[in-house]
Amino acid sequence: MEEATPSEVRERLTLIADLSRELEVSVYLVGGAVRDLLLTGELRDLDLVVEGSGADFAHALGERLDAPVRTHPQFLTAEVEDPLGLHIDIASSRAESYPEPAVLPVVREGSLEEDLDRRDFTVNTLTVRLGPDAGLELIDSRGGVQDLEDSLLRILHSRSFVDDPTRAFRAVRLETRLGLRLEPESKRLLNQAVEKQIVDRLSPARLRQEVVYLFGELENLEASLRRMDELGLLRTLHPRLSFDERDAERLTRVTDQIVRLHDKGIELPALEFWRLALMSLAWRLEPAVREELVDRLGLVGADRELLLGFRQRLEAAASDLDGSRVQPHLAARSLARLQAEEQVLLSALGDDEVKAWVERWLEELRHIELTISGQDLLARGASPGPAIGAVLTATLEARLDGLIGADEELDHAAELLEKGHQK
Ligand code: ATP
After folding, report:
1. What is the pLDDT of residues 360-370, one digit of tens each?
2. 20 to 30 A from 244, CA-CA: which of 108, 140, 233, 261?
3. What is the pLDDT of residue 423?
């Protein structure tokens, strides 16, 4: 979807303000949205807080915009899918209490002030009142503007990291993405939460979520990993995890390679940066340690399989691609077994020959598909049976090796069948 233009965003804010007047309900733009607006002058998402029922307001807005609405009553939140492509999150103002450190809070409806109290950093408490009163008003009750000017991340109270240690990871993310720095007392409290092993109490699922967010921001990743190491946060993922110059060099090769592939116009298969980054970081861990890391993050299914087996698979592929006797169909056979992230990692870390093969695979070979199917061979009088599959595979390999063109597939396959091709 196209991005909304600044004037469209302004129009939308006006409509929201008008609606808040009609419904006589207080509506605020809050958090990261205001922070980023002040930092960059741009609004990407609209995070709204309604004093009253956020769901009712979301439905009214959805009706006005003829847009779908999703509500999450257990969290007192809703989303409106704006046709302009804006992401509109609407929450009822909430108060939170933490039954114990590092577990999810209990949430109830509360005032705007209570909603701001539960937030992580002063720069994320900045609020603009959109309505019902006319005119926009910036609400800065916790010194967020000053901290933003001083590029500081400051928590709101001394128990903040104890209540919710995910804030330690959020701190790193905001520091590196926005060029902010933890204010000294906040940093001391973060260090204390790490030392007292409060961060270790996070569930695997919550820790994984933070890793997915942090490692997904590839442009800032090296700075984030250095900072995580410095703050002791990498060790909370696994005591053996650290980030040294070799890790930095490996990561640079990976990120440079992504840029290089992009610059060459090579379209990458769908991949998730956090998986690539985690593999790069886990590169030199022994298998048993890697398994403990995977357990700590609660990785399951394909993620788990990827992290546990990638080193072996990459070694096997690198050896397949080594030497002068490699033909395109052999390279394709080997590389098709790898997941997208493994292909990129191999192209980043392999020697020149391996790199060239992976690039050729990504650019050209993986797009080559047969234009014929078994049906075409049956229509030509072939009898059903396993030979058909084998002949189709051999025909695709001939295409990959450039021995035949797409228009020669059927003749080639029929000829192989006649010769009694067996594989
Ligand atoms: P991003 O640009 O990554 O979306 P954001 O600051 O908008 O950054 P969100 O995760 O969308 O972050 O959260 C929206 C707002 O909710 C934040 O600005 C912050 O005020 C609050 N928030 C999010 N997570 C926490 C948390 N763990 N503790 C306290 N407040 C939080």
Report:
1. 999 999 999 99
2. 261
3. 45
User: What pTM did the predictor assign?
Assistant: 0.91
Give the chain's domain count: 2
Query: Which residues face 138 on adjacent strands?
Result: 128
Q: Which domain holds residue 389?
A: 374-418
User: Regarding predicted confidence, which is higher, 312 or 75?
Assistant: 312
Q: Is 371 exposed, middle or buried (0-12, 13-18, 19+ CB in 10 A)?
A: exposed
Return the residue whose CA atom lies nearest to atom 6 of ligand 1.
32
Strands 152-153 and 87-92: unpaired
Query: What is the distance in A from the centroid of ligand 1 to the CA of 32?
Result: 6
Residue pair 342/334 in contact by the 8 Å Cβ criterion: no
The answer as to whether 271 is a domain residue is no
Q: Which distant-in-sequence residues (6+ apart) come within 8 Å of 113 by Cβ?
A: 141
Q: Which atom of ligand 1 is nearest to the CA of 213?
A: 3
Q: Last residue of a domain, which of 90, 122, 148?
A: 148
| Residue 120 CB less than 6 A away from ligand 1 | yes
Where does a domain end: 148, 173, 197? 148
